[in-house]
Design brief:
mainly beta, 8 helices
Length: 787
Amino acid sequence: MMTRILYMLLLTIVLLPTASHSQPTTFYVSLTGNDNSSGTLDRPFRTLERAKKEVSKVSLVTSGHTFQIIVSPGTYFLDQPLVFQSKDFGSGTVLRIRAEKAGASVVSAGKPLLLHWEKAHGNIWKAKVPATIDSIPALYGKEKTFTLARFPNKQGHVRPFEGYDKNAMHADRIRTWQDPTGGYLHALHEGRWGGMHFQIIEKPAADRVVMTGGWQNNRPSPPHGTFRFVENIREELDAPGEWFFDRTAKLLYYYPEPNEDIRSMEFIAAQLENCLHFAGDPAHRISHITVEGLQFAHTTPTFMLTKEPLLRSDWRIYRQGAIWMENAESIHIQDNIFRQLGGNAVFISGHNRYILVKDNLIEQIGASGIAFVGRPSSLHNPLYQYSDTVALHRISRSTGPRASHFPEDCQAVGNLIRHIGLIEKQSAGVQIQVASRIAVLHNTIYRVPRAGINIGDGAFGGYDIAYNDVFETVLETSDHGAFNSWGRDRFWRANRQTMDELTATHRELILLDAYQTTHIHHNRFHCDHGWDIDLDDGSSNYRIYANVCLSGGIKLREGFHRSVYQNILINNTLHPHVWFVHSQDTIKRNILMSAFNPIQVRDYGSAIDSNIFFSREQLLANQQLGVDRNGIAQEIAFKDPDHFDFTVMNVGALNGFFTNMAKQDVGVKKPELRALAATPPPVTLIKQTEQTSDEHVHWLGYRVKTVSSLGEQSATGLAEIHGVLVLSKEQTDPDTGGLEVNDVILSYDGDAIRKVADLLRAEARHRWKERHQLRIWRNQQAMNIRL
C-alpha cells in the first residue's frame, strides 16, 4: 500500500506545471472586446482564437514564459475548434486559460439561431434558418436539449431510450413517411451489450427503407427486435418539445411545450464535434496548459462515426470529444462544466503523459465522460475481434508495450459524472483501453446506461481505481457491472479447450499484456442489472479489496492472479464463472451474505478460505464446493447501513478475519460538486431470520409480504401457507411488468420462494440476467411468467 501512496504523491508532483517565477503575461477575452485591440483588461480581445495567437506570437520569441488567458462571462461561439499545437509555442511555455467567474464562460460548438417564428399547422411552428446552416445534428436551448421528432414519443421513466417500440420500423409505419431520408433507427444490440445506430438513405418502396450503419458494436449482431426507436422523420413531429429540420427548404419546425413562449426562446444549432484540440507531435509534445472554470457545450452527436474497433473488447469508439488531446503532457482540465454534448466530454488519445482531469461536472452528454484510449500500434500481436487468433509461434514474448502510443501516468480525480450515454449506450463514466497507470480517484458516477468505469483489455494495467462512488449503473444494457473489464490478451482464445491447453503449457503468456497489477479498493459500487464488480473474459492481475458492494456482488470470469479480500458484499456474494484450473485466484476474508454462485467451475485452487457468512447454512453450502474450510458463520451488525456506514460493530466475533476500514470517504470532494451529487439508493439488508407476519417490503416496484396466515392462504387458494404475496404495484415501467396484485411468487429463476428473504436472495443471485422466469400462483392456478 505504501508504494501506491508514494506513486500517487510522485504523480501529483509531476502533474504540476513548472511555471517561471516571473508574473504571467495576461490576456483578456470579452464579448465586448475587439480582436484588433491589445488584449489588456481595458481593451480585451473578443475571441479565444485571437488570444491564443497572441500567446503563440510572444512565446516563440520569449522562451520559458508563463501566460494566462482570462475569459469574461458569456457564450463564445466557435467557428472552428480551438487548436493548440506544439509548433505554435516556444520552449518552456506555460499557459493557463481560466474563466473570470467559474462556469459563467461558455465555449460553444454551436451557432445561435435568430428566428422569426410563424404558425405552420396545429401546434407546430416554423422558422427559416440562415442559408449558412446546412444541417442541424442537434438543437439546444437554455439548459435544454430539444427532442428530435421521434417514435415512440419520449417517456422519461422508460428504459432504454426513454421509450421504445418493436413496431418502430414496421411496414405499416414506413408507409406513413413521405421522405424519411436522413432518419435514424436507434436500437440496442441483440444481446443488449450496447447501442446500434442506422441512418435511412433511401425509400425504394412504400413499405421499405434502405439503411446504413449498425457498426457501433465490436460484437456484431442484428438490432434488438423490441428495444428500438426512430427519429428525425418529419411525420413523427407530433409531441410537445419535438423539432424537425427540413434541409431542403431550410425550415425549422418546433412543437412548443405548454409553458413555452416560442418567440422568447433560445435555439442553438450544433455545428462542431470539438471545442478544444491539443495536438502535439512525437518529437515535441504540447505541454503545460491548464483549462479551468469554463463550460463546454453544444457539440454534435457522433454516433454514426463510432466505427473504430477497440482491441478485442466489445467496444468501438470515435476518437473525439469536447476536449481532445494526443501527444500531450502535463495538461490540466479542472473545475470545468461539460454539459449538453452530443458525444464524449474528454478524449485522451494515444501518447499522453501526466494528464489531470479534476473536479469537473460532466452531465447531459451523448457518449462517455472521460476516455483514456491508446493506439493499437502500442501492442504486440494486436487483435480486434472476439474470435481473432494468432499462431502460437508468432506470439511475441516481449512483456508490456511495443510502442509508447498510449496514455500513462494520468489521473481522473474528483469528477461528478452523471446523466451520460444519452445517445450511445456503449459508453462509460471513465473508459480505459490500451493505457498504463491511470488513476481514477474520488469520482461520483451515476445515472449511466452501462458501466460507470470500464477497462477494455489487460494492456497494460497498473490502474488505481479507488474512493469512487458508482451507482445507478447498467440501467439500459445487460451483462455488465458498475465496474466492468475484459482481458482478452495475447493468451486469449475463443475456443475454451484450446485456451485451457495453451495457458496450462505456456503460462508465460498470461501476464505479457496485463503485466502491472490493477488495484480496485475503497470504492462504493451499486449495479442495477448486473454485478457491482464484473471482471469478464480473461481479466487478470487484479487486487480487489476494501470495497463495499451494495447490490450485485463480485463476478470473476476466467482469468488469472485475482486477489479479492476484505470486501463487504451486501445482499450478495462472489460469482465465479468458468474458472481456469490453477487460476491462482485468492478469495479470503470477505463478508458475504450468501454462498458462492458458481457457473461451470471445476477447480477453485487452494486459496479460497476464511470468508465470513451471515449464516451456518451459507457457510456449509460453500464448504460443499470444497472451499472455505476455515470460514466462519456470523451475522454481522453494521453500524448504520441506512447511511452507508458499514463499520462492523461485532468485529471481535470474526476471529481476526476482518478488519474494519474507516467509514468510506468516497466520491467527489469539492464542496460545490458534493452539494450536487446524489447518493446510492437505500439498502435494505436481507434478514437471515423470518420477517414478522405483517412486514411489508418494497421490491422492484412492488409491495410484497410473506404469505403467513390462513386468511391469505384462503383468499389466494394456495394449498399451503408459503410464497410471497404481491400487495400493490407501484409503477408501470415495462421493465417491472408481468406481476399483478394478489399474485403469489413461488419460485424465481428456479429458486424456491417460501418467504420474502428467499425472494430477495434469489433476485440478488440472478440480477445479472436480462430476463427472469417466475413460477406464480394466480387465480387459483400455477403459471410461469417472464419478468
